[in-house]
Specification:
mainly alpha; 5 helices
């Protein structure tokens, strides 16, 4: 049976794997790493610039695309008087007490 040292020697000899800094230099590894860092920097700077300019862009566009007013949100419910509000408050209080007692 092969020992661990013999297995690694066999794998390195079989696939002719040699690890050194010279292989990185020959394969242009440093240039590739620098190019990748430059690309990431440019993309992040572009995103940051876009986020910074977004309020100014929206201020310019706002006169042409005004905010949509929702009918159902802004209209108050008709027919609610103070007695109904007190009833709703009492129901909410009881519901709150009920949910707190279940914890």
């Amino acid at each position: 049976m092969l020992q661990n040292a013999n297995i690694t020697d066999w794998v390195f000899s079989m696939f002719n794997l040699q690890f050194s800094h010279q292989n990185i230099i020959n394969g242009q590894g440093f240039e590739l790493a620098v190019a990748g860092m430059i690309i990431v920097f440019v993309v992040l700077a572009t995103v940051s610039l876009f986020i910074t300019l977004m309020p100014k862009i929206l201020d310019k566009i706002n006169p042409y695309l005004p905010e949509h007013k929702h009918r159902n949100v802004e209209t108050p419910i008709a027919g609610i008087n103070s007695d109904d509000k007190a009833t709703i408050a009492a129901i909410c209080y009881v519901f709150h007490q009920y949910t707190e007692s279940k914890k």
